[in-house]
Design a protein that fits this description.
The chain has 213 residues and is mainly alpha-helical. It starts with a helix and ends in a 51-residue tail after the last helix.
C-alpha cells in the first residue's frame, strides 16, 4: 500500500468508528424510546401529542417499553444520546478519547450555530457536557464490574426514570448549578458563534454564570 493509501486508511478508521457510534446510539434510541432523533430509522414522524409531565416542559408521547408505558420528549432522548454515546466511546477506547471526541462535538455545534449562541444554547451544552461526563462514569463502572454495553444502557435508562444524575431538559433548574465547562471537561468553548449578527440577532449570552474561561 502506498503512502496515500495509508493516509486514507488512517483517516477512514476514525470516521468509520464515529459513524458506528451514531448508528448504535440511534438503534438504542429506536429500541428504548420508539424513535431515533439522531439518525431517523423509520419514515414515521414522532408525534408529541400527550400532555406535559414533570420535567418535560412541553408535550410528550407515550411509548411502551417492556410492557410499561413511559413518557418521552426530545430533550429526554437527547440526554440518553450523550450519556450512552459517551459511555460507549469511554468503554471501548478510554475516558480521555471520549472526553476529546464529545468536546469536539460541542465545538462543532458552536461553530455551526448560524444565528449566534444564545441562552438556551449555553444551557443545552452545559447539560450535554454534564451528560458526557456521566457517560464516562458509567463506562468506568461497567469495566470494573464486567458489565456489557447493553447492561450499561439498561442502567442508564433505570437511572433516567429514577431521576438519578441525568437531567431531562435544559430548562431544569439543576442546569444552573452544574460545574463550569472546564470542570466538565471542555474549557474555552466560545460564547459567541462565528456568524454573530449575520444570520440572526446573535445576542451574546447573559445571566448565566460560568468560570470556565
Amino acid at each position: 500500500m502506498n503512502t496515500r493509501g495509508i493516509l486514507l486508511l488512517v483517516l477512514l478508521i476514525p470516521v468509520a468508528y464515529i459513524a458506528s457510534i451514531f448508528w448504535r446510539v440511534s438503534v438504542a434510541e429506536k429500541t428504548y424510546f420508539g424513535h431515533s432523533d439522531l439518525i431517523p430509522l423509520s419514515t414515521t414522524k414522532a408525534r408529541y401529542t400527550e400532555p406535559a409531565v414533570p420535567g418535560s416542559y412541553g408535550a410528550t408521547r407515550l411509548f411502551i417499553r417492556e410492557g410499561k408505558p413511559i413518557h418521552v420528549w426530545r430533550q429526554k432522548v437527547n440526554g440518553f444520546q450523550h450519556v450512552y454515546g459517551s459511555a460507549l466511546v469511554a468503554y471501548e477506547l478510554g475516558e480521555k478519547p471520549a472526553d476529546w471526541l464529545f468536546c469536539a462535538n460541542e465545538w462543532a455545534e458552536a461553530f455551526l450555530d448560524w444565528d449566534g449562541i444564545h441562552q438556551d444554547d449555553f444551557q443545552d451544552r452545559h447539560k450535554d457536557l454534564h451528560h458526557n461526563k456521566l457517560g464516562r462514569g458509567y463506562a468506568r463502572a461497567a469495566r470494573q464490574t464486567g458489565q456489557t454495553t447493553t447492561g450499561m444502557a439498561h442502567q442508564i435508562l433505570a437511572d433516567m426514570e429514577a431521576g438519578n444524575g441525568i437531567i431531562l431538559h435544559r430548562k431544569s433548574p439543576r442546569v444552573r448549578h452544574l460545574p463550569s465547562e472546564r470542570a466538565l471537561g471542555c474549557p474555552n468553548l466560545p460564547t459567541q458563534g462565528p456568524f454573530l449578527g449575520l444570520f440572526g440577532n446573535g445576542l451574546p449570552i447573559k445571566n448565566f454564570r460560568d468560570d470556565s474561561n
